[in-house]
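Q: Could you fold this chain for me?
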Amino acid sequence: MKCPICKHGSTHKGYASITLERDGATLLFKDVPADICDNCGEIYHDEKVTRSLLEQAEQASTRGVELDVRRYAAA
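A: Sure. Below is the predicted structure, expressed as structure tokens.
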């Protein structure tokens, strides 16, 4: 797809690291499937991946996690 941010690049399948912060908790997810712009590097996730990341972040926050680094796995 054409990148909606820079309007010059095209996206390609790849993997990215995503950091989420909430209420003093920091979570780093590695190897998250993504579409990445070959021009500006903008990262896009599909709805399923986004939902999974948010669910895992919510679970970690509920358990009182302050810092977590994990390899992405679909929930």
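A (continued): The helical segments are 47-62.
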